[in-house]
Amino acid sequence: MEAIVRAKGLKKYYGKGEALVKALDGVDLEIERGKFTVIIGTSGSGKSTLLNMLGGLDAPSEGSIFIGEQELAHLNSEQATVFRRKQIGFIFQNYNLIPVLTVWENILFPITLDNRKPDRNYIMDIVQFLGLESKLDTLPNNLSGGQQQRVAIARALASKPSIILADEPTGNLDSRTSNDVVGLLKVTSRQFCQTIVMITHNPDIASSADRIIHIEDGRIVE
Fold it and tell me: pLDDT at residue 166 above 70?
């Protein structure tokens, strides 16, 4: 199976001397296209730092990251911003929906930023799959937490990115809704042939993934 993400020798150090913190300490990683992968670790293990690196939100102290054939280090700030919008979908713990936009407008927002024409049939398939048809004209504040997270998933999928990165997407949800959202992510990965990487500290949530990567003290442990 083809690797859509390749990371080699990733290090991220903060501070110096006795204050040196090794958030990532030599991470080698490949993630296969179309798989639902979970990165699991305790608080402070480096999993959020790793996700930010893979999403181009932070630069490593050492090492390289490829998304497809593109090495992130070779992009300037403006190019990196455009690349993220087109190739990387983000799902955040606090949803990050725009409160003054309707559900439909939120889903289309990353596409409209690039003046691209949305694939409306594809997006409506996602909307129906996630059970959001009756909520398209609703503002986010009138939705439950689970519904808002579904909108965030739809927004991430809508632009057909190379990879979706989910940062503790169930952190603000109750256990039942959390299981629903993780189940949706897994089925979504298969339904739309989408590569999804999710970080969590919850082993029960991680158990439904195609692959689990454990990280502790900035290193991947087998």
Answer: yes
Gap between the Cα atoms of 215 and 222, Å rounded: 9
- Predicted local distance difference test score (pLDDT) of residue 93: 87
Which conformational region is residue 208 in: left (phi greater than 0), alpha (psi within -120 to 50 degrees), or beta? Answer: alpha
Burial class (CB in 10 A: 0-12, 13-18, 19+), 121: exposed
- How many CA atoms lie within 13 Å of 77's alpha carbon, on the beta-carbon side? 0
**90, 98 in Cβ contact below 8 A?**
no
Tokens (6 digits) for 108: 């289309």
Torsion of CA 119, 53, 182, 139, to 10 degrees: -50
Global pTM reads 0.90
Q: Is the pLDDT of residue 1 over 70?
A: no
What whole-number distance in Å separates Cα of residue 56 and Cα of residue 72? 7
**Which of 14, 15, 8, 12 lies closest to 25 in space, CA to CA?**
12
Domains along the chain with CATH numbers: 3-221 (3.40.50.300)
Sequence-distant (6+) residues with CB within 8 A of 115 are none
Tokens 């181009």 — which residue? 56
> Whose CA is closest to 97, among 63, 67, 138, 64?
138
State the CB neighbour count (10 A cutoff) for residue 49. 22
CA dist., res. 202 & res. 1, Å (int): 27
